[in-house]
């Protein structure tokens, strides 16, 4: 049986803080249902994250209406972003 601490949403998680603007991010686009940002620790240039705005303990289980609105946003491939490697200095 899950404990009460696991069953509730933690609004101090990093994604909630990004959505509230408490942690800086590079915004690609935003809708009323989702926010797309560049990943702070990308596996490749331009790696991005699509964060649903609905409160959910697991990113793979947002409320149905939120998931239905955010999922089509991930499908189109946006044009490449200009990217250059940081200088060593």
UniProtKB/TrEMBL annotation:
Domain spans labelled HIT: 14-53
A GO molecular-function descriptor: adenylylsulfatase activity
GO aspect biological process, one term: purine ribonucleotide metabolic process
Region named Disordered: 61-89
Pro residues composition-biased segments: 75-89
Matching InterPro entries: Histidine_triad_HIT, HIT-like, HIT-like_sf
Protein name: HIT domain-containing protein
Source organism (scientific name): Emiliania huxleyi (strain CCMP1516)
């Amino acid at each position: 049986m899950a404990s009460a601490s696991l069953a509730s949403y933690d609004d101090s998680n990093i994604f909630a803080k990004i959505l509230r603007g408490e942690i800086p991010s590079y915004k690609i686009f935003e809708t009323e249902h989702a926010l797309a940002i560049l990943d702070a620790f990308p596996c490749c240039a331009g790696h991005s994250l699509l964060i649903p705005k609905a409160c959910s303990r697991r990113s793979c289980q947002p409320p149905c209406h939120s998931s239905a609105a955010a999922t089509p946003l991930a499908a189109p491939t946006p044009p490449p972003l200009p990217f250059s490697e940081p200088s060593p200095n």
